[in-house]
Write a structure and sequence with these properties.
17-stranded mixed sheet; UDP N-Acetylglucosamine Acyltransferase, domain 1; alpha/beta; single chain; about 450 residues; 2 domains; Spore Coat Polysaccharide Biosynthesis Protein SpsA, Chain A
Length: about 450
């Protein structure tokens, strides 16, 4: 791509067929809004600007687009308002002020077409530049075309015009080559052509599809690129189409992971979002869901029915059956579960272990520490080599505020101990079973009772 490229994304509509109070482009696919996928594909082209035409729920759409890119690329985003939707041609007109001094090529894409790949857009640009066209568009051939505009060609198979589905004659409706709506225009040729658009059509709108015909009538070249994957270019108009799109995207995600050395035991029952990263020789068992910006290291085992969201998992970790991990971190060599929950930035240091029916919330479990059974650890900082007995609870809430529990290194907490925060258990201390600790425990002390009292000093 030798010339300067800009990308224009049309994302102003509400999407009434979605039957939703949320703008269509904000509905999610693979953990990200539809608009995020489109913006990311555009960013791979390294364009000078990514112009997004917004309208319904403009602030939310803008926020979603910005959040999808790193800060240095997000600076290239420009947003223009389309206050009333009067067709695709009108949407491009709304960006006129941004484009008036631009040179080179303009890619036109859609905020509800999240599966389009950057490589497909590159092919469009390559044909546009090599053919020195004023406009170039992608076409597809389908045995039973959807309600897309038909590509009209002359006797020499040259492009003549696009006729929208609602304006087609019965004969034109039989044409199998259609326009999915992706274009590349020479910007300074496009802008004056927009002034010649009219609303003399079945929908009373300004059709962007009329621009190639206008340019050809002026003697300018219009090129086409035939594409073979309809679903990649499809715009999603309802939830059923999003579900089918997610099936396609999910398959691509899993295939890439497996090609990179990840074992997916049963791809049909495994759901992994687009931003998830997984290291080689990790095994994902059936019925696992991994969402958000999760990172899983190498040589890990994620067992069935576990649900992971925004987690960071180091190498050589095992998550046993039926665990729920959210916004939490396993450093390395950790084992969790079965039936465990980690949430709100829980952290396991190297070789720490959490067993069945244990919950950590806003807590850190130190190196080689263990909590194996039926325990709640909330707002707690736990040192190294600590053993937490079964049915232990950090009582962190006094009815108004949450308080911290600190357990230092080499502590042994007996079964059924209640630690009433704020409280600190000193290094090397031991609590007897059934203790209720309501005041700080000195180092190297044995405490027991309700409330717990120091029984003796430990060597």
């Amino acid at each position: 791509m030798s010339n300067t490229t800009n990308v224009l994304i049309l994302a102003a509509g509400l999407g009434t067929r979605m039957k939703s109070d949320q703008a269509k482009v904000l509905h999610k696919l693979g953990g990200q809004p539809l608009i995020a996928h489109v913006v990311r594909s555009a960013s791979v082209l390294n364009p000078e600007k990514i112009i997004v035409v917004i309208g319904h729920q403009a602030e939310k759409v803008e926020a979603a687009a910005r959040a999808s890119l790193p800060p240095e690329m997000a600076e290239r985003l420009v947003f223009v308002m389309q206050t009333e939707q009067r067709g695709t041609g009108h949407a491009v007109m709304c960006a006129r002020e941004v484009l008036k001094n631009a040179r080179g090529s303009l890619i036109v894409s859609y905020g509800d077409a999240p599966l389009v790949k950057a490589d497909t857009l590159r092919k469009l640009i390559a044909e546009h530049e090599s053919g020195q066209h004023a406009a170039t568009l992608i076409t597809i051939k389908m045995e039973i075309p959807p309600a897309y505009g038909r590509i009209i060609r002359d006797s020499e198979n040259q492009f003549v015009k696009i006729v929208e589905d609602k304006d087609c004659t019965p004969e034109q409706k039989q044409i199998k080559e259609v326009n999915p709506g992706f274009y590349c225009f020479d910007i300074q040729t496009l802008l004056p052509a927009l002034d010649r658009l009219t609303t003399h059509n079945a929908q009373g709108e300004y059709y962007l599809t009329d621009v190639p015909e206008i340019l050809r009538a002026d003697g300018k070249s219009v090129g086409t690129v035939l594409h073979d994957d309809y679903m990649e270019l499809q715009g999603f108009n309802n939830r059923a189409e999003i579900a089918l799109g997610w099936k396609k995207l999910r398959g691509e995600i899993l295939q890439k992971l497996m090609a990179d050395g990840v074992t997916i035991v049963d791809p049909d029952s495994t759901y992994i979002d687009v931003d998830v990263e997984i290291g080689r020789d990790t095994t994902i068992h059936p019925q696992v869901i991994i969402e958000g910006r999760s990172h899983i290291g190498s040589n890990c085992e994620i067992h069935s029915w576990s649900h992971l969201t925004n987690v960071e998992i180091g190498d050589n970790c095992t998550v046993n059956n039926s665990c729920v991990l959210e916004d939490s971190k396993l450093t390395a060599n950790n084992t969790v579960g079965p039936f465990a929950r980690l949430r709100m930035h829980a952290v396991l240091d190297d070789s720490a272990v959490v067993g069945n029916f244990v919950e950590l919330k806003k807590s850190k479990l130190g190196r080689k520490s263990k909590s194996m059974h039926l325990t709640y650890l909330g707002d707690a900082t736990i040192g190294d080599r600590v053993n937490i007995g079964a049915a232990t609870v950090t009582c962190n809430y006094d009815g108004k505020n949450k308080h911290q529990t600190i357990i230092e290194d080499d502590v042994k907490i007996g079964s059924d101990t209640m630690l009433v925060a704020p409280v600190k258990v000193g290094r090397g201390a031991v609590s007897g079973a059934g203790s209720v600790i309501i005041e700080d425990v000195p180092e190297d002390s044995l405490v027991a009772g309700v409330p717990a009292k120091v029984k003796k000093k430990l060597k």
